[in-house]
């Protein structure tokens, strides 16, 4: 279906046919949800051996009784696991609780209230701002919004953020104190940053505000669907350009083991870790070391973690294929939208014709299929072109996902045809 060249009569006929199909679907009273990137029950079952794995032995290899207080940095064995995931030295890793988002919030709050490594607090700037590659991750934006930190969008390309735009913004505005990055299988586009992009990001610390920090949320560091996709090391790049203090890296096992009971990690320079730990001492006596020990025994070797993630991929791959096949079949030769073909991660990013995303989401909701709200992948929930929709294939069973995608495809067609008719 190509509607740019269609006549009014053709569009009216299509609208009639599509509306009839839509009404029939609404009668089925569906209740399907593809809003968020949650692991499925089948994926969660892969880690059920965590339950009871300690078998009453709560002492870590170094003799630490994990049931007790203390250990702000986390267990050494847990930090080693985080170091393997992020490919950094163990001494540069702090292992926390179950949520990397919590660590990111704490890091932003530290920068805002106290500053990092001797730089002044962000709150003392006239108008502190973060750069936000879009489309991006809504929870990153929520942190900034809650703290009153401004957000400046920069476009995502097929190799990462538009670095010309990033560099221009930072050179022209000393109040820019951060940038959000999901560098591998970006949320939601699935893009992995190129070597050039990583290298240019590493150089930002040479001319940015001294308090500027890159928030490197490597949430999908090991979430490859088929062959491993290599992400260039931001640590190595910052070492080369003498900007190690400019980066904070984050990861977790939330989409590796049990999503609500994983282990989160932050990796940073010695100076940045000192800033984080100074504030953490006032808010906690230490993380859940029992859970950290469980994970360390579950993944006694990094090869075990790789094998575990291959099992995840076997579950996820058919779901991504379902989404991509439906999109290709419906829109491969049309002018109704475009999408990315990710090689890993948890999302598929779809762009409707400008001005159609909100209508598609509403039509789908009325038909019983919940989608991520239109605009969620932009700061303040406002997509200026009203076109991006994030699809999350992981949670529903394959049969339900297939049904949900059929409804999605129909809603995209119907919304597009109706919009075009309104223009004529």
Automatic annotation (TrEMBL):
The entry's protein name is Transcriptional regulator
Q: Which GO terms describe its molecular function?
A: L-aspartate:2-oxoglutarate aminotransferase activity
**Pfam families cross-referenced by the UniProt entry:** Asp_aminotransf
- To which species is this protein native? Microbulbifer marinus
Under the heading PANTHER family, the entry gives:
AMINOTRANSFERASE, PUTATIVE-RELATED, ASPARTATE AMINOTRANSFERASE
Q: What is the lineage of its organism?
A: Bacteria, Pseudomonadati, Pseudomonadota, Gammaproteobacteria, Cellvibrionales
UniProt-listed InterPro entries: AspAT_Ic (IPR024551), PyrdxlP-dep_Trfase (IPR015424), PyrdxlP-dep_Trfase_major (IPR015421), PyrdxlP-dep_Trfase_small (IPR015422)
User: Which CDD domains does the record match to this protein?
Assistant: AAT_like
Domain of life assignment: Bacteria
Q: Which Gene3D superfamilies match?
A: Aspartate Aminotransferase, domain 1 (3.90.1150.10), Type I PLP-dependent aspartate aminotransferase-like (Major domain) (3.40.640.10)
